[in-house]
Amino acid sequence: MDSVIREFENDFNRIEDGREITDKLEQELLPVITDMVEQAGIDDIMVSVQSKDDYLYRHNIAVSILSGKLATWMGFPKETVSKIAFSGLLHDVGKTKIPSAILQKTDRLTSQEYEIMKFHSQFGYDILKSQGLDEDICRVALEHHLREDGTGYPANKQGQPIHEFAKIIAIADTFHAMTSNRVYRKGLSFYVALKELRRESFGKLNPKMANTFIKKIMEMSIGSTVRLSDGRKGKIAFGPVEDPINPYVEVDEEIVITGNSDIYIEHFLQEVEIINF
């Protein structure tokens, strides 16, 4: 994964050089992403794309994979899934035009800096449009921060219909951003992030897509080894249909029902962490 991210970083920062760079990403990197959409487990996604040091690049790849997963779960044909995954890979391309002092800041942005950052969606649309990319992909760059209740940005697009692809990318983008460690804050736990995603499905995010994402992510997580909020290690055994966000976790032959107490899933463990736990 690290080599994929390094290659993407090089190409991403040169994307304004011309259409040949986006074509290269589509021809060389997208097939790798597509394979991960089809094969990667939730622990692979949650662990391999985590790093506070090169967040922008890992984030774009994670959003690409997660949005491809969601598109598959929503029943889109394979060709469309690939297009949505490619949209996810390029959704933040406008950030290449944001001053590095803002983009690489190790503290929270000021309100003024945040207003500048918000221009990345329009910048992204303009870059991709100028290269003649499909309008569906361009609109994802423009609309992935718009919300169902008419909030979000760009402000001049508030209240207008949001492209279906952008709704998918918004969910993947939100989930990965919430669970990612940043220099200035620790990412939310898997459990807390899913609860927040469910809360945002009431007005902010498309409810059908968000609930499908939550249900399928929890199904993917069955069998994964996790650390609970009380420090114990366990394996996800079962996710109740009526409440998939609170799975049953097997800990030393005991079943712990998460969500019924202060115990929740805090972290997915890598193989080396399992061995050294």
Written account of the structure:
This protein has 277 residues and is an alpha+beta fold. It folds into 2 domains: 2-221, Hypothetical protein af1432 (Orthogonal Bundle); 224-277. The chain is 54% helix and 8% strand. Strands 4-3-2-1-5 form a 5-stranded antiparallel β-sheet. Strand 1 (225-228) and strand 2 (233-238) form a beta hairpin. Helix 1 (2-12) runs antiparallel to helix 2. The longest helix is centred in the N-terminal third of the chain and has 21 residues, at 19-39. The radius of gyration is 19 Å and the shape is globular. The relative contact order is 0.10.
**CATH domain class name of the largest domain:** Mainly Alpha
CATH superfamily of the largest domain: Hypothetical protein af1432
Largest sheet: 5 strands, antiparallel
List unreliable stretches of 5+ residues: none
Q: What gap, in angstroms, lies between the N and C termini? A: 24 Å
Q: Total number of helical segments?
A: 13
Number of strands: 5
| N to C succession of SSEs | HHHHHHHHHHHHEEEEEH
CATH domain topology of the largest domain: Hypothetical protein af1432
> How many structural domains in the coordinates?
2
Percent of residues in beta strands: 5-15%
CATH architecture of the largest domain: Orthogonal Bundle
Organism: Halalkalibacter akibai (strain ATCC 43226 / DSM 21942 / CIP 109018 / JCM 9157 / 1139)
Domain HD-GYP: 34-229
Protein name: HD-GYP domain-containing protein
